[in-house]
Design brief:
19% strand; 12 strands; 354 residues; Isopropylmalate Dehydrogenase; binds magnesium ion; alpha/beta; two-stranded antiparallel ribbon; single chain; 2 domains; binds 3-isopropylmalic acid
């Protein structure tokens, strides 16, 4: 098939991990006789430096015209340590999500047999854990009115959700539950927050339409605890924007490393595929970052955006093989660490040979 992929490498380790993911997509292209075009565009701190805008109009046009977006990471300590900065790299990512209508972020949490010993949890707790976290991505406290008053001495961030926003994400949750093990956990804070009570009300209205699915309601603080206590009890979890952000960082480390988890953001326009980790500025330019989450994001791109299942499966197989062989970056093995590009090359060679 022919496809046009927008490539937004971003900041920090972004360019290095994207470089390895592109080796992989080029290998897939060759092996399965596809024809992809790649269009690079700037976002994040590097776009602020270049044109003063973390998500320039030109970048948005490239994303809208593409069949999929492969995204690295954004963020820069220059901005993190400056709370009064008016323009921030993260605004670029948020604006991209909003403008592309990416209301759902799919974050599969899967464990790798060969990495169970790296998990901070006991093997018997984590072995076989496999769940899908569906995070609402364009609403809630991230996008409500925010500001300062009282001479800047009071700050506020409003959390707002509409029925329409809640219904479409819950519907997706139920559809995934139907495709998986038919258990949906709706995570909220309905004992305190009005937005959460609307979530729960709508979930209760929808639940009878999916009689085969067991709906479970869980407060977010309890969910944070249960993810580490009984991760195997989850099948599909659906939650609002900020809870999903926090819970998926937590969930990612039970698999052994934050550097392993991919994500797909889907919605109204072009889908975006990106690792769930950040721009890891301390590692930028050192060729040490783990490229696996981005390579697995490329696998999700083949499966979700292009419906190329065999291609996605081969990438997953290659990644699993690299982990089994211990051909891994330093976040996984300090003693025998390989570089970012060595891991990318190994996975690419495996794909070409199988
Ligand atoms: C994520 C990140 C972003 C978020 C940041 C970089 C704005 O943490 O994708 O999880 O909070 O959504
Ligand atoms: Mg996050």
């Amino acid at each position: 098939m022919k496809a046009n992929i927008a490539v937004l490498a971003g900041d920090g380790i972004g360019p290095e991990i994207i470089r390895e993911a592109l080796k992989v997509t080029r290998a897939i292209e060759k092996k399965f006789s596809h024809e992809f075009t790649y269009t690079e565009a700037i976002t994040g701190a590097c776009a602020i430096d270049a044109v003063g805008d973390p998500y320039p109009e030109e970048t948005h046009k490239i994303c809208m015209a593409a069949d999929a977006v492969l995204f690295g990471a954004i963020g820069d300590p220059r901005f993190d340590n400056n709370p009064t900065a008016k323009v921030r790299p993260e605004q670029g990512l948020l604006r991209m999500r909003k403008m592309l209508g990416l209301y759902a972020n799919l974050r599969p949490v899967e464990t790798f047999e060969s990495l169970l010993h790296k998990s901070p949890l006991r093997r018997d707790l984590v072995e076989g854990a496999n769940f899908m976290c569906i995070r609402e991505l364009t609403g809630g406290i991230y996008f409500g009115e925010k500001g300062r008053k009282d001479n800047d001495n009071t700050a506020f961030d409003n959390c707002v959700y509409t029925r329409e926003e809640i219904e479409r994400i819950l519907k997706l949750g139920y559809e995934y539950a139907m495709k998986r093990n038919k258990k949906l956990t709706v995570v909220d804070k309905a004992n305190v927050l009005e937005t959460s009570r609307l979530w729960r009300q709508i979930a209760q209205e929808m639940a009878p339409k999916y009689p085969e699915v067991e709906t479970q309601y869980m407060f977010v603080d309890n969910a944070a605890m249960q993810i580490i206590q009984w991760p195997k009890n989850f099948d599909v979890m659906v939650t609002e924007n900020m809870f999903g952000d926090i819970l998926t960082d937590e969930a990612s480390v039970i698999t052994g490393s934050l550097g392993l988890l991919p994500s797909a953001s889907i919605g109204l326009h072009t889908s975006v595929f990106e690792p769930i980790h950040g721009s890891y500025p301390q590692a930028a330019g050192k060729n040490i970052a783990n490229p696996v989450a981005t390579i697995l994001s490329a696998a999700m791109m083949f499966e979700y955006a292009f419906n190329l299942k065999e291609e996605g499966a081969l990438i997953r197989k290659a990644v699993a093989a690299s982990l089994e062989q211990g051909f891994v970056t330093e976040d996984i093995s300090k003693e025998n660490a390989k570089s970012t590009s060595e891991v990318g090359d190994w996975i690419t060679n495996y794909i070409m040979a199988h």
